[in-house]
Amino acid sequence: xxxxxxxxxxxxxxxxxxxxxxxxxxxxxxxxxxxxxxxxxxxxxxxxxxxxxxxxxxxxxxxxxxxxxxxxxxxxxxxxxxxxxxxxxxxxxxxxxxxxxxxxxxxxxxxxxxxxxxxxxxxxxxxxxxxxxxxxxxxxxxxxxxxxxxxxxxxxxxxxxxxxxxxxxxxxxxxxxxxxxxxxxxxxxxxxxxxxxxxxxxxxxxxxxxxxxxxxxxxxxxxxxxxxxxxxxxxxxxxxxxxxxxxxxxxxxxxxxxxxxxxxxxxxxxxxxxxxxxxxxxxxxxxxxxxxxxxxxxxxxxxxxxxxxxxxxxxxxxxxxxxxxxxxxxxxxxxxxxxxxxxxxxxxxxxxxxxxxxxxxxxxxxxxxxxxxxxxxxxxxxxxxxxxxxxxxxxxxxxxxxx
Length: 403
What we know:
Elements: H1 37-48, H2 53-56, E1 69-70, E2 82-88, H3 94-104, E3 107-113, H4 116-126, E4 133-134, H5 138-146, E5 151-152, E6 180-193, H6 206-211, E7 219-221, H7 225-235, H8 245-258, E8 262-265, H9 270-276, E9 281-285, H10 286-295, E10 299-302, E11 308-317, H11 324-334, H12 337-347, H13 362-365, H14 374-377, E12 380-382, H15 388-402
Parallel strand pairs: 1-5, 2-3, 2-4, 7-8, 11-12
Antiparallel strand pairs: 4-11, 6-9, 6-10, 6-11
């Protein structure tokens, strides 16, 4: 579970670049949920050099399938039956559940997970059974496809598949949208209190973020190895998942020099600390940034010019699904912007559907945390899956920083 932790000063100047081995993939619960103990245990083992491929790598379990489950025939709208959904907390509000059940006659059962790795572990342990709809993030969609844990159903055969915005229609993790459909989009940037930090000094990139003078007060970072490492890599002129050993050393050096400027490393209470003024600058996910702005209008969300992570959570059908028609009916239902609007409003996110943003309340549409400008979108970089060997480097770098 994610916890708040202050940085403890120490001196770790050397970064040991790893060429091989298997690491623990990560993906944050972001705002709504906590990090699992399993993830933190994997970090500690990786740093100690004791990580086994079976324990944390996300490899296929004995119960995992070795061939795809295919259900890409003609669409048949279901009327009645049941559907079991496994999703992020906050992604299925009660009013949406009631509306869907009333309009389709399908009874929903909704459970939530804490991280993509928890989702993956659940599917691996059951061979994909137990749930019909699952909601993995971008890189995890790719990983679950490789593990044959998702049903191939083909979004183009759904009546509302045409509603997906062009920006989300050709994702690297599922280029033809045969296994997934986009559900929620968000961004990782940082927030600045413009009342405390003058515009002349306010950073616009990760490089400037890490270089900001400590006279303005201490900052906060997310307790997330991927987000922090990606930001540091971009700040030193590199990119996510790089294989350049020097880039990791440079990122490591940057983070070590930044330690004295950090007040909190946590993914909990991020919006509250910024809104209250406890911190005047900090790394934050866009939907948390929107919540912070509701309490403090002096806060400005920045899309770093050297790379703003864009993440997409998706709808998919688990390989062991027992209610395929109901699952397709749910996905098609959520690809109608009129049905999806309540989801986006609840999640504090912009729409992945054509015309969806126009249905949001005007206050949401006017916030760049929800609807980025064209210039801000130019900085967006879709988060991708690193190799297991590279994941080791992310883990070690982040642990060096926090120790």
